[in-house]
Amino acid sequence: MNEIAKTNPSSETETGPGPKRPWMSGGPDMLATLRRYFPGVLVSLTIAIAATFLSEHYGGPVMLFALLLGMAFYFLSQEGACVAGIEFASKRILRVAVGLLGAQITIGEIMKLGLTSVILVIVAVTLTILFGVLLARVVGISRPFGVLTAGAVAICGASAALAISSVLPKGETHERDTAFTVIGVTALSTMAMIVYPLIIAFFRLDHAAIGVFLGGTIHDVAQVVGAGFSVSEETGNVATFIKLLRVAMLLPVVMTLSFVFRAHSAGKAGRQLPGFLVAFVVLVVISSLGIVPAPILAVLKSVSRWCLVTAIAALGMKTSLKAMADVGGRAIALIVAETVFLAIFVLAVVVVLY
Question: Among the residues of 173-317, which ranges form H helices?
Answer without folding.
Answer: 174-200, 207-217, 221-231, 233-248, 250-266, 275-289, 294-317
